[in-house]
Amino acid sequence: MREVILSHCEKNFVNKAIDKETRLDGRQLLEARPVNIHFGSNWGCCIVSLGRTKAIAQVSCDIQKPKASRPNEGMLHINVELNPMAAPFFEAGRQSDPSVQINRQLERCLKDSKCIDLESLCIVADKKAWNLRVDINIINHDGNLVDCASIAALAALMHFHRPDVSSSEEEIIIHSFAEKDPLPLTIYHHPVCISFLVFENGNTIMDPTYLEEKVGVAQLTMGINSYRELCSLDFNYLTRTSVADVIPTISNQAANYAAELVSLIKESVRQDVEARYKKEVKNFGRFENCIATDKLTAMFTDKIPIKLSSWGKMDDREDEIMEDQKENEQIIKINKNSAELLLLKGDLFGNGGVNTWQNDSSSDDEEESSDEVVMVEETKTKCHVLDDIELSEDSEEEETQNMTKDDIQT
Amino acid sequence: MEGTEIVEDEGILRPMKCELNHLTMPDGSAMFMQGDTAVVAGIYGPVEARVQKMMYDKASIEVVYTPIKGPPCVDDRMREQIIKETCEAALIATLHPGTAICINVQELQDSGGLLACTVNAACLALINSGLSMKFMIGAVNCMIEKDSQKLILDPDTTQIQEAKATFTFIFDSSKKDLVSCQTTGRFTEKEFLYSFDKCKEASQCVFQFFRSIVTKYATRI
Amino acid sequence: MRRNLPRSKYQKGIIHPIKYLRDYLERDIRPDGRQFLRVRPMSVNVRSITQADSSSIFKIGNTTVVCGIKAELAEPKVETPDCGYIIPNVELPPLCSPKFRPGPPSDQAQISSKIVETVFLNSGVLDPRNLCISKNKLVWVLYCDLICIDYDGSVMDACVGALMAALKTLTLPEVEHNPDTGAIIVHPSKRLSVPLKGAPVCTTFALFEDQLLIPDPTEEEESLALARLSLVIDGEELCGVYKAGGIPISQEVLMKSLSQSKKRAELVRKLIDTAISST
């Protein structure tokens, strides 16, 4: 489905509101939406909601041969999927322009900034290294997908624990979580993406919603870590009009907010990980926590016990259907390698419709009147077919006769 | 005499948790959890259909299942097909000719009975979307334990490792007949029919859950 | 608008294919003259493709599936160091039906491959440990190519039948593997057959209004059916019940299909055994 085009009055409305420094959801111009992070019961799995935008991230790892250019480093692979659930105009399984753009922005922010210690992921240089894969699925689209995805990716990476390995010569043993405690990743610094949107009149807003994104003129995404260092920068015009330089005015705000955001992520990761270390099952941020209990549309049940009645009474099944068939089928051996199942008299008037393969050279209806003849005919034609397939073993003389007979018949 | 083979037992369905309207963009959505298995489903429809998929006499139903990690594989295609055909059976597609109904399902966490959870989530999302349905669909997962030959309803990941056979049955709510079925492992006819019967009983609890959640909000609007 | 029409519409020039079929069914007969519970004649041929390690051709009525198994040596997967594996691949080329277009495998072909694989794994017909030559180092991989050359319904039945017939005639050359040097010596003349346990048989049913059940549907019936059901039976046990959607099926009809498929399974098993027997 194509994206619905925004009407002029909606556009004007948003523009006018921004002129008066108000936003539809009542935020200040440079104010972000609230961030919520919920962790699943696996390591490295979280749901992040940024306002109404929602993303799910899951980190997974496997052992692979490292790249030849970097033999002593593990690998990090980031994949953002714009799930068609997020918006009807996203298509499944296809790399669209926006998904490539978001992927690239996240790669620059997380991978190229070298925030993850990839060298510690190497097990045997040039042979085996951990390959990390971050899958981010956007499930609800309300603007600013990049920020939401970057928060989800960072939180998932910080939360992720990989299994411990011990390597003796040649062999490496991957320890299950029960054997040895899993290890967290080493993260040097924590970059997040902070997005801004510039409007026609030069006003800049932070964390745009879907509606605002469609009205804005230019988009600016900064990857900043908690030390106020810039890791990536992306500036993109959405329309043809140009705007004045906005970076100096907002960079300070971006850095402050980044520090705030990173400490929020760190805190929620710390709480969840600590609860896990202490094995406090109740305190895990399980997914169920993201269902608000008090909502009218939400519903919880406890375990439902079901009395299973005993087995015996199931047995009263009668086989009334069994009566119908006597030995109606016959299996005949045609030659060394073939057999055929035929239906006998009474069924012959139709054994599977216009059955062309049975009598490939000649199909005479009169011959089918007696089933014995049919069977003989079957044998012959079958041999004829086999002849074509197996040209090598032509030992039986009969077949040549059959062929001539068949040929004469036609 | 044959009752000795399968021991009578009390079955337990894991706690079900659900939130309808979990997402804002789709026309109907639901987050559904059975134990720790969690799934989000979102429905768009009826929407404009792509030209290749358009059918002049009914709505085309498209299902996209997204796994939590890794690219989609053949198993997911299977799942998509089962969800598609099952929802097709429940929906009255002829009411919306020439359109498309898109059912999107996102796996959040798999700890046993993912297919059943997925189908239930899809059904809840369909209820939420307000599309007309002939009946509700409810799925129940069960397994036969290898050693004890016991039937376990709605097993979790650790229990499934001990399974000799697993079954996922999907029932309709009106006649309580079988809509879809998927099995793994080897099993006898008796075990199959027994599981079928028990899951049918258990599916009533699933339907009851569906009904009560609708009553909960429908009575107050 | 050709793409969405049922095949029979332009093939047979039937204006109302559904009514056409219903008229037949109301008179208690199927369009090809079969009674409701009657299956089509089957035919199986083995060892006709000499280049493959084993092969078979399986026909059910017009439906024809050719199976060729090619065995190759490979390193085992890390998770299962002492197991060989099988890779079934179902091809539905444009040759077999106007429904299919050239190009990458369709969803249906992928799903069929998956079903064949699950049937194989669930039935436990071949213990993957028997395909192991040297633990952690060398195992057999069986590439099973199933090519449908005539698509006329119940293709899964033919695929499973062809695979089983081919597996039963499969012989593998003896291999010597030296774990220290890694040297592999293959003796192509000394061939051993693979131990098999049982033989699963798949039976497809189509379901119509009023819980009318017909086994072994043709393509025409299959495309107009309101539901399809596949049962895989191996001896006294079942190893797969697949039903994906469609109208719900009642328990009585399910029982009926079970007993029908059992009977058919016995016939198919005898058929395959007759075909491969040396006399």
Automatic annotation (TrEMBL), chain A:
Domain Exoribonuclease phosphorolytic residues, every copy: 31-163, 191-233
Domain of life the protein comes from: Eukaryota
Span list, region Disordered: 388-410
GO molecular function, one term: mRNA 3'-UTR AU-rich region binding
Pfam family, one: RNase_PH
SUPFAM superfamilies xref list: Ribonuclease PH domain 2-like, Ribosomal protein S5 domain 2-like
One CC-aspect GO term: nuclear exosome (RNase complex)
GO BP term (any one): TRAMP-dependent tRNA surveillance pathway
Chief localization: cytoplasm
InterPro entries named in the record: ExoRNase_PH_dom1 (IPR001247), ExoRNase_PH_dom2 (IPR015847), ExoRNase_PH_dom2_sf (IPR036345), Exosome_comp_Rrp42_subfam (IPR050590), PNPase/RNase_PH_dom_sf (IPR027408), Ribosomal_Su5_D2-typ_SF (IPR020568), Rrp45 (IPR033100)
Keywords: Cytoplasm, Exosome, Nucleus, RNA-binding, rRNA processing
Subcellular localization, as worded in the UniProt entry: Cytoplasm; Nucleus, Nucleolus
Composition skew (Acidic residues), residue ranges: 388-400
Family: Belongs to the RNase PH family.
Record's protein name: Exosome complex component RRP45
Species per Swiss-Prot/TrEMBL record: Cephus cinctus
Annotated gene: LOC107268573
UniProtKB/TrEMBL annotation, chain B:
Domain Exoribonuclease phosphorolytic: 13-131
Organism of provenance: Cephus cinctus
UniProt subcellular location: Nucleus
Annotated CDD domains: RNase_PH_RRP46
Protein's GO biological process: nuclear mRNA surveillance; poly(A)-dependent snoRNA 3'-end processing; rRNA catabolic process; rRNA processing; U4 snRNA 3'-end processing
Full protein name: Exosome complex component RRP46
Domain of life: Eukaryota
KW tRNA processing (keyword) present: no
Keyword Membrane among record annotations: no
From TrEMBL, chain C:
Top-level taxon of the source organism: Eukaryota
CDD domains per the UniProt record, alphabetical: RNase_PH_RRP43 (cd11369)
Keywords in alphabetical order: Cytoplasm, Exosome, Nucleus, RNA-binding, rRNA processing
Disulfide bond among keywords: no
GO molecular function: mRNA 3'-UTR AU-rich region binding
Coiled coil region boundaries: none
Gene3D superfamilies on file: GHMP Kinase, N-terminal domain
Exoribonuclease phosphorolytic domain: residues covered: 39-173, 199-263
Stored Pfam families: RNase_PH, RNase_PH_C
A GO cellular-component term linked to this record: nuclear exosome (RNase complex)
Annotated compartments: Cytoplasm; Nucleus, Nucleolus
Alphabetical GO biological process terms: exonucleolytic trimming to generate mature 3'-end of 5.8S rRNA from tricistronic rRNA transcript (SSU-rRNA, 5.8S rRNA, LSU-rRNA); nuclear mRNA surveillance; nuclear polyadenylation-dependent rRNA catabolic process; rRNA catabolic process; TRAMP-dependent tRNA surveillance pathway; U1 snRNA 3'-end processing; U4 snRNA 3'-end processing; U5 snRNA 3'-end processing
InterPro entries: ExoRNase_PH_dom1 (IPR001247), ExoRNase_PH_dom2 (IPR015847), ExoRNase_PH_dom2_sf (IPR036345), Exosome_comp_Rrp42_subfam (IPR050590), PNPase/RNase_PH_dom_sf (IPR027408), Ribosomal_Su5_D2-typ_SF (IPR020568), Rrp43 (IPR033196)
Family named by the database record: Belongs to the RNase PH family.
Protein name per UniProt: Ribosomal RNA-processing protein 43
Provenance organism: Cephus cinctus
